[in-house]
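seq as requested:
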Amino acid sequence: MKASLKKNISLIAVLVAVLITVYFIILFISLFYGTTMEIPLQHAGSQKGWVTPGGPESDTAFGGIFISNRANDSLPYREYKRIDDSIKLIKQKKEMVNQNPPAEMSGMGNIGVASIEVMDYFSVVDSARNLPWIIALHDSAENLRNRISKLSEKDSADLAEQKADSIEWLYNRELNKMADSLRARQGHLYFLSLAEYTTDRDSRFYISNGKYYLAHIKWDTVVQNGKDTAITGHYIRKPLSVRYLANDKIVLIPISKKSFKSLEIVFKVLLFLGIFLPAYVFIGLPLHVLLSISRGNAFTEKNVRAFHIMALFLAMIAVLKVIMPYLMHFIYRDLIPADFSLPSAGTALWKNSYLFLIALALFIIGIAFKKGLRLQQDQELTV
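struct tokens:
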């Protein structure tokens, strides 16, 4: 009876871990394979010392990342608003090109793989808009709306308005379909992703003609004027072999499609393994310990082993979180430019210090349980 009870209790941890893993597998499948994405459509410088270097004189230099932010506010309001909106749209398009988010991404910790569509959202929609029959639909709706203001009869104007709305609805529907079709047919770029990378605050990553560059400041002269120091410099561009997502602090290293597919499978297996093991260690084992305590068997070899496993597993996670970014950086040191840097080792240790403290606490509890087990065994021998 006791052997059967011990066997059932030891299986509880495994059962809980399996159920949690199955739940996340179902959730993963429903999120990534059970939904489609709708494309929304639109209607028809820095300081160093005491010097702030300006951007380049031409707005088109450096991929247009230094384009002027505002229109001339001395213009008539309508003209100012039109130019200002155009500038904002251009900047938004440039930002989308330079920071085009991955269409697919998987990984663990700071390491993963990502695929990015060759054409960004704006480029896809612009390509669809330039199709002859899409242009014809747009022009038809626009011409009809221009004629509405010239119609004197209300009924005729209302009828023309309804017809224009119908054409515009058809235009947006077909534009959306063509954009989806173009996105489905276009190719992808494949990358190994490494997170937690930052660059100098004055530097800007950008893409020009499909190539990657970093715009950064070259400081030229230092002028001493009494106690003041004036530093002058200018932006230069540096070719890169990697892509950079500044908002997410991710460096993307180009890889082949075959490598991407292989690594994607590996990371997906590791993902579910990474769900099962923590569920087993941090939910299943504590539940097993609590149940054994509730049955009056607090000090057992299994409970001591459970605390040691929890402490060791958490310590391993903490060590991996600290050293893995630096290990990957060392492996790919020839590809990652010196302009991109990881946080200091001290920062990484401090950030994960709570994991080491919890692991230490669990290890101490395990020692206490082990001493309790020895006292219990000595008492049983005495009796």
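Confidence is low (pLDDT under 50) at residues 34-52.
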